[in-house]
Amino acid sequence: MKRKISILIILQLSTLIALAQKPNTTKSVTDSQDIITNLKKTVDQKWIRPNPKLKPTKLSFFNTENAQKYFVGLLQISGFGIPFTWDDDFTLVGFLSNLDKKINVKKGTEADPIYKGTKIKWRNDINGLVWFNGKTYKSTVDNWHLFGINDCPGTIMFPNLSFKKVIEIPNAVTNSIQGLSILPYDENIKIKSHKTTMTTENGKIIQGIGYDLNNDSIFDVFSYEEITTGYKRLYLNIGGQWKCKWIHLDEECI
């Protein structure tokens, strides 16, 4: 069984526990950078690999200026219909903390009575765009959670960011729905996706999914997965150059 199946179950249990818990009484923390730096030290980063360089394309939505204003990641839907994205290298939590440095932090059993770890919530609402099944929704960030333990000893525990539920999804446990998440929310973004191929500078052909964000038939985002390793990458087209901005590793649960 793959680790991603296990973590979906963990997220479901964590959601049920959160619903039953009392309102958050943890005090606000303003110096979030120290917390993030210390948390990052607890997650092994040796798994990160060099990213293939893709041949240039036409410029479109992102440029060197506005690319710093957005965070884009692949989206998944948990068994309870909760949209979430991974933050394996802690880039996302750093991005959000720049938007709002006022955070609430829970640790250990306060974060989750079963799986413990560290949970971060932002004092002010941060809205993001979640896209799946061909539809776009506006959703508020719920929490960022780095689990302390899991059901698969020996695997790396990567943090994830959960959004508020946007719709009821029948058979969410078995649907394995995936999509795209963009922060902060931008009502002008209209996403279309197609299977496509990219060519590396070394001439290798890579099959993946291209995403057009502004309806000009030029891909602004490209994602692909190494099927044999479960290593996922997401590139942004920034001024015609492809830059890898999001990575995730699906580990095997042994």
Task: Please tell me about this protein's structure.
The strands form 2 sheets. This protein has a 6-stranded antiparallel barrel with strand order 2-3-8-7-6-9. Residues 19-26 have low confidence and may be disordered. The protein has 254 residues and is of the alpha+beta class. The chain has one domain (3-249). The protein starts with a helix and ends in a 5-residue tail after the last strand. The protein is built from 4 helices and 14 strands. Helices cover 16% and strands 35% of the residues.
Q: How many angstroms separate the termini?
A: 7 Å
**Average of pLDDT:** 89
Indicate the structural class: alpha+beta
Strand order of the largest sheet: 2-3-8-7-6-9
Shape: globular
- Low-pLDDT parts are 19-26
Cα Rg: 18 Å
The main pleated sheet reads as: 6 strands, antiparallel, barrel
Specify the number of helices. 4
Task: Count up the domains.
Answer: 1
Strand content: 35-45%
State the helicity in percent bands: 10-25%
Strand tally is: 14
What sequence of helices (H) and strands (E) makes up the elements? HEHEEHEEEEEHEEEEEE
Keywords: Signal
Signal peptide: 1-20
